Amino acid sequence: MTQSKPFRGGNPLRALRGPLFAMVLAIVSVGCDSQDSSSSQNILTNVESPLTTPDRLTKLRKAKFLNLTERDAAAEWLALQEHRDDVSYRPTPDDVATYERRIALLAKLTDEDRRMVANRTVQTRDLLAEQNIHESLLTLLDGMTDVAKASVVGNYSAYCQWYVNLRQSRLDHQQALQQMTSLKRAP
């Protein structure tokens, strides 16, 4: 029984060399075929940053909490949550950076995930709002940072729950933080 070779000469690359070269040449020539060099510049200037694309903003604006795949959007999501009643609001890079600095610091101080810090902060704000107690997300982040810097026992979730309980017992923001920071860890 004899075996037939599918390619003459036994070298499949040699048989494909001509068609492969023609295909590469066609792809390159299509990519270079531009009527106006400024059209490619227009495309670049019209592309929005991933931070502010409308679809991404709409999705983040509607999110009730951040899931594991949205870990990198925590600061942007907080900025949107702070302005949730303003559908035209688009966070600037400075807005996002303001939240990012606070989230990163709290995550480091409390050994929590940035996403969890964002989720708990919004949850705390919303629980307080149900009791007609209104605090901004930045105020909550700054207050919990003070608590964490005072080495109070607990994690971020515990801080937030404790804060909600103290506020519901009619303490104002500063009084609640003072009570929390008075219970520091033993040296």
UniProtKB/TrEMBL annotation:
- UniProt superkingdom: Bacteria
What's the protein here called? DUF4142 domain-containing protein
Which source organism does the UniProt entry give? Methylocaldum szegediense
